[in-house]
Records
---
Amino acid sequence: QQQVKQSPQSLIVQKGGIPIINCAYENTAFDYFPWYQQFPGKGPALLIAIRPDVSEKKEGRFTISFNKSAKQFSLHIMDSQPGDSATYFCAASIEGNQFYFGTGTSLTVIP
Amino acid sequence: EPEVTQTPSHQVTQMGQEVILRCVPISNHLYFYWYRQILGQKVEFLVSFYNNEISEKSEIFDDQFSVERPDGSNFTLKIRSTKLEDSAMYFCASSERGVGELFFGEGSRLTVL
């Protein structure tokens, strides 16, 4: 059973565009929703995270939108840059327990 | 900035051989994890470790796998008899309190021939 479903699998945008990556989850007990960024040959690194008591969180050019009733959350990257080209993973967890990762989205930002 | 370090970065082994992957978590962290990522696929949880014992493990973490914290700094993953399908990138991660951010190492790529 896939706990977290992520889409799209890949995404290509022009520099300055706003890529949006979506995730959906099943378990309503999840209470921590991070997004991780992974460059080739590197481990995932935390980008931004949200808890279900807020509907939106913004850090720099990265925004998470969270819809608790729909059990969905998404990552928006404002003014995307070629350096944002990476694989992005959403995840969900119940505090203190394992993280369930989505299948990843390969983002390419064209200069 | 403190980081999780892993060795080796790449290991090639023959099927049936034993492999030990090593990790040095961030020094004040108490919760340790192993995840794996088969090429091009999602990151999958293997095991979590706290207070010198396994706190949670996945179906992937069967009897061929074991973890150990042999001293105050290292955290190891042993694969007893490697199979072709064990070929993957193995990531160690640590967390200060078991909640919130996981800090991942750069991974150890295991290739089983």
---
Amino acid sequence: SAVISQKPSRDICQRGTSLTIQCQVDSQVTMMFWYRQQPGQSLTLIATANQGSEATYESGFVIDKFPISRPNLTFSTLTVSNMSPEDSSIYLCSAGTGAYNEQFFGPGTRLTVL
Amino acid sequence: AQRVTQPEKLLSVFKGAPVELKCNYSYSGSPELFWYVQYSRQRLQLLLRHISRESIKGFTADLNKGETSFHLKKPFAQEEDSAMYYCALHAGFQKLVFGTGTRLLVSP
């Protein structure tokens, strides 16, 4: 398994600003992922953070809005750009360890946009 | 299309009663399925994976390819089982597709 931490745990931001969320894994992992969990809803995959190349985005998510960095095998960041109240959500980072294709999750970042 | 369906948003049972949380999937290949659990104020964590055919905290889940189901069962529910349960399907490249979740509430 992997232990994953995220910073910040929560934030309240103004419309039009940007927030960068950090995700740190305690071991080297090949795959890292970013999810969004809107109030009362399930997890939606935003993108796969690839080490050494651009992130792979899911349908409905674009790099300009959610730029992602993956500088090494233990760290990734997700930026939520030009925020609006609709971006209020919990953002989750996860890592795949490759053993059985399961993922391990960080504690999440609760974002509120006013 | 890859899809996971959890038809029940809320399942409420009494302590000691049997529990079955339903999960149906749509996938063209050979499925790999998981159950995740989120207890109050805790992070999402893996409960069990079908490939291991394991029992965790008294829970089991059997993959039924004919019915495309992976229901989670426990014969005697405990109050500490109250949580949000998510069924997830491996969709390739280690990506997971999640169901909408079922909240299990076990009353004394």
